[in-house]
Amino acid sequence: xxxxxxxxxxxxxxxxxxxxxxxKGSQLSPALLALLNCFEETLAVRLxxxxxxxxxxxxxxxxxxxxxxxxxxxxxxxxxSALDLPxxxxxxxxxxxxxxxxxxxxxxxNAFSSELSRINHGHLLIQCAVxxxxxxxxxxxxxxxxxxDSWRQQTRSKNPLLEKCFCFLDGLGESLNLPKxxxxxKGKVLMRAMYGAKVQTLFICSVFVAAFSGSSQKLFDLDVSxxxxxxxxxxxxxxxxxxxxxxxxxxxxxxxxxxIQGVNAVVNKLHLLMQDGPVSTDEDxxxxxxxxxxxxxxKLSGGLNLLSKEVDxxxxxxxxxxxxxxxxxxxxxxxxxxxAGKRVGLQAM
Length: 349
What we know:
The protein is an all-alpha fold. It has one domain (3-348). It is elongated, with a radius of gyration of 24 Å. It has helices spanning 3-7, 30-50, 59-83, 92-135, 141-156, 160-174, 185-213, 231-251, 258-273, 284-333, 338-348. Helices cover 72% and strands 0% of the residues. Residues 1-25 and 335-349 have low confidence and may be disordered. InterPro entries: BPS1_pln (IPR004320). This is BPS1-like protein.
């Protein structure tokens, strides 16, 4: 368990980073203040919306959460363009943080895609079982049992890539300690907005890891200052969601997704019916259970498809932003500072 979660206190072990965001001689102009307020107000709306979308362990909620995250990262890219802050004016620490965060987010996205593919493979097993059950063929009994057993084993197994996400989340948490902004009003706006994006990213990714792994080990209790327009909504959302996750984890094991548990409930019911021999679609209880299994499997499949598309979209947004920064850095470094170009290339690797 991370040192940060064990303490259950403010996330900032090295002091308050917001004091670093108020350097002398960098007062915000009305135009810059309007840009920052627009970003923060929009983020506040997104966070409030997530509170109203139902069960956080449903694929529907998770799809909305990652969609919200995509919108925030697009806004960061739009803000960078609106600030018109040349790359050569970026502090080296900003660049390192941006590149480091982006590679961690790409790794996390890959882990989520891997888990969704794994679940989808399990869904195919359920589809095969439903087909055999509906055919009412005695010859398919052994295969049906095998499909259902494989499904149960898969939902109890762990994805190694998800285990690696624990380290990635720790790295994202450490990146919340912002670098000092030196006499740059535009830099102050950028760092403050990036802080909001990082907080939302860390929160949503940690909830995803908890839902997929059945572990609350990497839930973070972030203490966000009320100086942010989105702070109140975030603190309320985080408190509610973390409470639900920890409660559900303590009473369940394995994957916590609502749709998977819906399939499991019917699979367990069919397992009991099949203990006395093959089920028959002539029996009302068996027919109802088979229909329920098909319905739950369809819910799972539909949710997986939508969530997978959003995770892919998030991956592409992060990758596009990273590539754009690297391209700008290469152009800036050409003929001016070859060692800086090498540093950027190594960081990308």
